[in-house]
Amino acid sequence: METATPGLADLQAIGWPLADDGLPVEPAWREAMVLRPHARPARVVEQHRSGYIVADGPEHSFSVESLPEWLRPATYRKGASAPEERPAVGDWVLIEGSSIKHSKIVELLPRRTAIKRAAAGEHYKQQLIAANVDTVFVVCGLDADFNPRRIERYLLLVRGGGAEPVVVLTKSDIADTDSAAAVSVLELAAQDVAVRAVNAKDAASVAALHAWLQPGRTAVLVGSSGAGKSTLTNTLLGVERMKTAEVRESDSRGRHTTTYRALIPLPTGACLIDTPGMRELKPTGEEDVAENFSDVEALAEQCRFRDCKHQREPGCAVRAAIEAGKLDPQRFANFLKLSDEVAAAASKAANRRAQKADDKAPGKTPNKRPDEKYGRR
Predict the structure, then answer these.
(1) Could you tell me if 139 and 168 are in contact, meaning their C-beta atoms sit under 8 angstroms apart?
(2) 228-248 tens-digit pLDDT
C-alpha cells in the first residue's frame, strides 16, 4: 500500500506549526527537511515499550521502525541513548519509506517545549511526559483532590518546560470546596496563571477551555488519578473514547484509567495529549522557582538584610507579611521546599554532566567495574 504525501491541513490538525509560507515555524525543522528531501514529517501519537505509533493526519496512524539505538534499553552509560533523548508523545520525527509497513524514523526533530520530571531513584534521570506542547491543563478536582501546594508544584514543572499552564478545577457540580474561593486562592498563588472551574461532564462548561484549543495547537492534561482528565477528554471529543472510573470516597483518588500517553485530535482543530495520573512530581533542576513565587521574591527584596533567611532576623518583610495575613505560611513553606528540591536536582545534574565530560576527556578510561578494568581473577 503506497502512502500519499501528507497535506498541510492534515499535519496542522495534529499540531504541525506553520508559518505564513507553509513551512514549519522552527528554523531547525526547515533545515532538517532540506537535508532529507525524501523524508516526510510525522508525529508520535503513542509510546509503548515495544515501539512507536506515529500519525501524519488526524485519522491516519501507523507503526514505524525505530532507530537502532532506541531498540536497546535506555541508560546513561557512555555511548548509550539517554531516556530523554528518545521520542515521546508529541515529538515530531522525519520518516522515510514508500509504504506504511516499511516506514522508519530517520531523525527526531528538536523540541519546541518539553514537559518532564525527574525520575524516581537515587541517581539523576529525567522522564519526558510530553513534547511540543503549547498549553498544559493542570487538572485538579474541587473535592478532596484539591491541593494548592500540588498545583504549585505542577506549575513549577510546566513553566520549566516552556509551555503555558492553565489550572482547570473539575467537579464544580459536586464540589466539596467552594469554586469561587478556590479560584481566588489560586489566582493569588498561580501568579497570573489562568484558572477555570468547570463541570468536566458538561460541554457548555468545558467550552471555557476552547480559547487554548484553536487549530494547530497542542495541549496536554496533567493531574492526579481521579481528577477528571479522561472525563474532560471525552467531553472535549464529544464521544466516550477514554475509560473512566469512580473515585474512592475516602480521599477522592481514582485508578489509572489512562495507562499510556496518547495524542488525540479534537473537533476544535487542536490536539490533546492525555497522560496517566502522576503521583510523584520531582523537579529536574532546570526550573525557576522565583518565576513561580514572584510574590515571595518581591517580599524578600524588602528585607533589611540581603542574606535574610526569613526566620527570626529583624526587619524580615516575609515574616511580617505572614504575620499580617498577606502571605500564606503554607505557600511560603512550599517555596522553601521546592527551592531546596530544585537546588538538589541541579546539583545532581551538574555532577552527571561533569562525570560525562570526564569520561570523554582524552586519555581517560571510561568507568568500569574492577573486574572489567583489571581483568577477572
Answers:
(1) yes
(2) 888 999 999 987 655 544 544
